[in-house]
């Protein structure tokens, strides 16, 4: 699927998501009765390798990995992101943009890590072998957080924990059965920053992003 077609599909999905809640609920119920979601998930289960973009800038070389699992987490369909250094999300590239005065590249080895993140996506559409999903926030939450942390010294005494607050229902996941591809389109509205020194919280802040940060992943499944 070319980039133009992906963007077109996302525009169609975005427009549909702004319809009234009753129509939205009806679509979900109809989708779940018409499509065997468990079978779709099972057919798309596996590891996807590809690249990340921050806004329109490519920031990874094609070796980033995202896993899609259909079971193993309390029986729910989840899309987990493995905390394997910087492969699941370009944490260093994001940190460099969030903290332009910090020399992120010269922090201690493996100093930017993702904490385990797993989400139960909400199906919102299915057509032409493409399953469209969005992220579900916890009840009462406005955002879906993606967590990672920065270690500022070799002793791990000084840590900055960061939550990227992803806007649900404006962030789309697409699983394409024909091309065996996974596309993530995340919109980050704000970041939560927690700074700790020797385990004691010293600073907490919430920073709205203007403009918002757009994170995109496009990858293909590999059986390895």
Description:
This protein has 224 residues and is an alpha+beta fold. The chain has one domain. Helix content is 20%, strand content 44%. The chain is built from four helices and 13 strands. The protein has helices at 3-17, 21-34, 37-44, 91-98, and strands at 46-54, 57-58, 64-68, 79-81, 112-114, 117-119, 122-127, 130-134, 144-151, 158-166, 172-176, 181-197, 200-222. Strands 1, 2, 3, 5, 7, 8, 9, 10, 11, 12 and 13 form an eleven-stranded antiparallel beta sheet that branches. A two-stranded antiparallel sheet has the order 4-6. A hairpin with a 2-residue loop joins strand 1 and strand 2. It starts with a helix and ends with a strand. Residues 1-8, 10-25 and 82-86 have low confidence and may be disordered.
Radius of gyration: 18 Å
Indicate how many domains the architecture comprises.
Answer: 1
Number of strands: 13
Continuous helix count:
4
Largest sheet, described in full?
Answer: 11 strands, antiparallel
Strand content: 35-45%
Summarize the amount of helix as a percent range.
Answer: 10-25%
Indicate the low-confidence ranges by residue numbers: 1-8, 10-25, 82-86
Mean pLDDT: 77
SS content category: alpha+beta
């Amino acid at each position: 699927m070319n980039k133009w077609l992906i963007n077109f599909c996302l525009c169609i999905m975005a427009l549909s998501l702004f319809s009234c809640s009753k129509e939205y609920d009806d679509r979900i119920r109809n989708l779940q009765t018409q499509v065997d979601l468990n079978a779709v998930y099972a057919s798309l289960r596996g590891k996807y390798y590809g690249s990340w973009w921050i806004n329109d800038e490519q920031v990874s070389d094609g070796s980033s990995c995202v896993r899609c699992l259909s079971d193993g987490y309390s029986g729910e369909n989840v899309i987990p992101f493995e905390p394997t250094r910087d492969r699941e999300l370009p944490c260093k590239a994001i940190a460099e943009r969030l903290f332009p005065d910090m020399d992120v590249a010269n922090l201690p080895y493996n100093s930017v890590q993702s904490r385990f993140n797993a989400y139960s996506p909400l199906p919102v559409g299915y057509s032409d072998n493409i399953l469209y999903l969005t992220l579900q926030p916890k009840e009462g939450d406005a955002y879906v957080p993606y967590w990672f942390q920065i270690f500022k010294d070799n002793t791990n005494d000084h840590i900055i924990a960061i939550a990227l607050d992803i806007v649900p229902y404006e962030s789309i996941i697409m699983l394409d059965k024909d091309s065996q591809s996974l596309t993530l389109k995340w919109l980050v509205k704000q970041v939560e920053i927690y700074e700790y020194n020797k385990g004691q919280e010293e600073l907490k802040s919430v920073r709205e992003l203007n403009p918002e940060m757009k994170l995109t992943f496009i990858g293909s499944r590999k059986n390895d």
